[in-house]
What does this fold into?
Amino acid sequence: MDVPLLSLMLLVPLVGTIITLVLPKDSPKAKWICLIASLVNLLISFILVFAFVWEIPFALVGDPVTGSFKAYENADWVPTLGISYTLGVDGLSIPLILLTHLLVALGIVFSWKEGKRTKEFFALLLLMDLAITGVFVSLDLFLFFIFWEFVLIPMYFLIGIWGGPNKHYAAIKFLIYTHVGSIIMLLGIFALYFTASPNLTGGNTFNLIVLANEAGQNPTYLGAAFQMPVFIAMFFGFGVKMPMVPFHTWLPDAHVEAPTAGSVILAGLLLKMGGYGLFRIGLTMFPLAAVELWWVLASFGIVSMVYAAFVCLAQTDLKRLIAYSSVSHMGFVLLGAASLSTIGIMGGIYQMFTHGLITAVLFMLAGVAKRACHTREIPKLTGLINKMPKFSLILMLGFFASLGLPGLASFVSEFMVFVGAFGTFGKYLIIPLLAIIITGAYYIWTMHKVLFGKFNESLGEVRDVTGYELVPLAILMFFIIFFGLYPAPVVQFIGPYAEGLSTLLGGI
Amino acid sequence: MAFLLSILFGKKVWEGGAPFTIGAIGFSFVVSLYLFIDVLGQGALGGGVQVEIIAFEWIPGIEIGLLIDNLSALLLLLVSFLCLLIAIYSAGYMHDEEGKPRYYAEIALFTAGMLGTVSANNFFQLLIFWEVMGVCSYLLIGFWYKKPEAASAAKKAFLVTRIGDILFLIGIIVLFVTFDTFNIIHIQEHAGDIPVHLVTIIPLLLFGGAVGKSAQFPLHVWLPDAMEGPTTVSALIHAATMVKAGVYLTARSFPLIANSPDATLVVAVIGGFTAFFAATMALVAMDIKRVLAYSTISQIGYMMLGLGAGAYLYHHGHEALGYTFAIFHLVNHAFFKALLFLGSGSVIHSVGTNDMRQMGGLHKHMKITSFAMLIGALSIAGIPPLSGFWSKDGILEVAFEAGMNDPSFLIIWILGIITAFMTAFYMFRLWFFTFTGEKRSPGEPHKSPKSMTIPLIILAAFALISGILTFFMDGFGQLVFFEQAHGHAVEEIIHVFTNPLTFLSIGMAGLGIGLAYLIYNKRTISSTIFVSSKGTKAIHTMLVKRYGMDWAYRMFGLKIAYGFAKVADFFDRRVIDGVVNGTAKGSLLVGKASGFFDQKGIDGAVNGISRGIVRGGRGLRRSQTGNIQGYLAAVVLGICFVIAFAWIYIKITGG
It folds into this structure.
């Protein structure tokens, strides 16, 4: 029996959202329904993972063309225009799908006490789950773009309604900025549809598998004159989303204003869409351009890493600091992609996964600081270890994880990226390594200021991390340590994918 | 043999509590002892043992496992023994402190890190445990986190060693790219295959990690400050074990270093210079622990010198004697420096201050401590037959021999000899200051508990005999060596005492002790002569200020790095975001202008569309504040841009 796991995965949050929205106002059931829906989705993604590992047939209808995608579903949608409803997962999307459901579920738990328009808040979180999952599972460019744009809407409202004092500015800036990026990406999609697809397949299609297979057969199709500009247009769209310097300024504003769960999803998942797109479409569909333009990717990656790390050093708002550190860490993804090598690509993808876990912890901690101490200003937060031991322990671990300490998750990914990058760039690697030192400096400095020394009495009574906050933090910390010590469970998915991609790129 | 020491530990770490930690470390000591005897038994003396235990494949290409050979068996034994002694000592020393579970948990985790470092079979695993030690060191220096100095010192230690760690990390990456493996044995065996352009840089990158961890010049600045931690921590981590990890790493990369004469020279120069440089600062320090800290830096410098000079000689076809003596010195130094630290801890515990100016005349109050420290001081000064003599003398001899081939090593040797003099001087300055003369401390000094004095006695015994002991095993060269065992006890002793160099270094040590005696005990020479004339005063001030290097680092961090960060932040907020907002505003103007033209009805077709959008914008403006119209206009502009781009594009490609 074939179970359409992926469609189910999209259906569950949709139904959950609808039920939540028709509930009476202030119904206490709302958040329970959302939590259950997100947990069901998490369960489905675990089933998917295990089905993938053990090759259980019921969940895995292989892709008829190459068999490279699992849990494949295909139905005609608008056949005359070559639009189809095609879903499927592979080694690239599995870790990200798992991450999505994990972070959404934990984000819901973390926001358990949200008092303002509770019903809508949780419904929107669930809607985010739907949209982001859609991006990661759709294999039709048209469908992909719909989900890609759909993501903006719930996030816009999350920032615009539940945000901080400057929320309108931040929400609009977020929407317009990333939208401009998407429009230019859309242009690239049109180019693929109108020019590339007839050339490759003899007809117009949005089906990504068909396109990618043909591009894989003939990686230099239409030559650099076609591939380069289209790749750049797509890359711009992904780059804004990631974000890369200098197209990153929407991110700190959006983060500072967004509610905690919004920040978690924004940094943990939305940014990953950029990286995902880069691998799924950018490198796969335009191998020639990627090989020609690796230095562009590398430059943007390195500039993002080093520049954002320096900006971090000057931040006084805890959340802003973490936001810039996200920019810096996403630079690793670009660098890994630019290396065009198996281990570098592996590292880049794994970095997305680990960064998702770690940044979620950090944003939750910033949320705790705001709730407990009523401020996120680093100069005002001092000596918290005296009053908030649990918070301090998790903050230390989280900061250590984020600065890439061996034994914690992100070290593995950063190390892979550097190994891949060294093979490609040689001694120039010293520049991105600078970022590691600066990252160490700003985290250690912040830790020093926030945790140690005398407690700032003007903060008044503060409380430590409480139950519903501790649960998601503890779960995430567990994963961060676990995947730091034993990355194989995730890397086993990424490995074959990265190998395939680097083989394709190496064939140019 | 298949005991996964570190994994055994990892699980037990967080349960805390002194008895538990002591028990766990005791267990690992028993295991190490068994391993050590096993290694001796298998290879017998003079033979090499190299057993690799592969546990499992971690991620494809990286296997986790243990490497047990003579070197790591010896160090496992040493580390677990010292950790055990110091954990017992802590029971007395830390008796009245808050947060003991935290302390013991961190000590246990550290022990696991150190044991893991010296038993790793690949560089990657080594790096992970290496960083575990680093974190424990960070946490333990900052153990008294309420004290601002302690928190700052912890921060400094972490950041400075991190610079070294980055170099180490690059080194490992380069190694991996070159060899496609992290496996130490494989890399050692294929050391000759390194391409020429990497042959010097790889060992130096690895050595960079060692420089950071072992507090060698120019990354030495963190260690004196690290003395803000509890004395037990200073003794264990910052004297006996962790700082030696750098020496261990250098020893592990010995064949890589020996590949390149340039690298050997760099290692030896850094080592020799650090030995000298740190000793000069020890001359003027007034904090008893800081004197010992500088001394540690200086002694590790000797070890590096030994390794560098040894690698140089090995490169030119000699035996790798320097390797043996450096490790020998590592072991001896671990004993006598732990002894000195624990002794000073005992003094601090009883007097309640670190400042030597407030001590004095303590000999009659604490005889055991006093004698133990005297043994330690004699040992470090290099007075035969105490342990320090044998190894230090060996290192100097190797340096001299290398100097016969290359005069650069001769300069280093001279520095080493001068350092020997200074070492004797500052150690006895410390001893006389503390234990003789007038009592200067307020209050009555009290005796230390048994749990503190017994480890002292044990360590003192080792400092006395650990040198001689090796001769019963036919010389240390039979125990730890590179490639082939060398030396026999009798020949070695004869050689040492027929060599004029030996008497030179003993003479220098004696001179140092004598001078200290005259100045600080008999006071026939006033100690003010050091600050009497302008020139000497300037030198004195410079030494007290540590050559201004701490200041320079601080300024670099504060002014340059932070200044640059400020500029970047400004750039981000004003320039980049300014462009973004400016674009929005500009589009708003364009939108308005086009709206104006619309209303004039210039273009009928565009008119309707634009008007609709502008109206929509106005409608939104009523409901929201901010420059939303600007953004809407930006959308309009963006779409126009897209259409134009598409049109041009189609013209180019389609046409």
